Amino acid sequence: MTTSDIDTATAEQLAPVAYAAIQRLGQLGRTGAVALAALVEDDDADFEEGASWIGDLAAGDLRE
């Protein structure tokens, strides 16, 4: 998948890519977090929504 495919990707297509990217950011630690933070704008509601779901998942609150 390329970044140009993200806008039309299904949840099933996007989830493995997001999972791998989040794991890699975790490996990079603060450096990865700072690089991501540089892309996020203060009023990005879609990012806030996604981050909330990631937080729920990390807490073990979301399993289907």
Provide a descriptive summary of the structure in words.
The chain has a domain of 36 residues. It contains three helices and no strands. Helix content is 62%, strand content 0%. The mean pLDDT is 92. Helix 1 crosses helix 2. The chain is globular. The protein is mainly alpha-helical.
- SSE string: HHH
Which oligomeric state applies? single chain
Described by the principal axes of the CA atoms, the overall outline is globular
Question: Mean pLDDT score, rounded?
Answer: 92
> Termini separation (Å)?
25 Å
Radius of gyration: 13 Å
**Structure annotation, total helices:** 3
**Strand fraction band?**
under 5%
Considering DSSP H and I runs of 4 or more, what fraction of the residues is helical? 55-70%
Tally of strands: 0
Which regions have little confidence, pLDDT < 50, spanning 5+ residues? Answer: none
Major sheet description: none
Concise account of the structure shown:
The protein has helices at 11-28, 30-37, 45-58. The protein has 64 residues and is mainly alpha-helical.
Which short descriptors sum up this protein?
64 residues; mainly alpha; 62% helix; 3 helices; globular
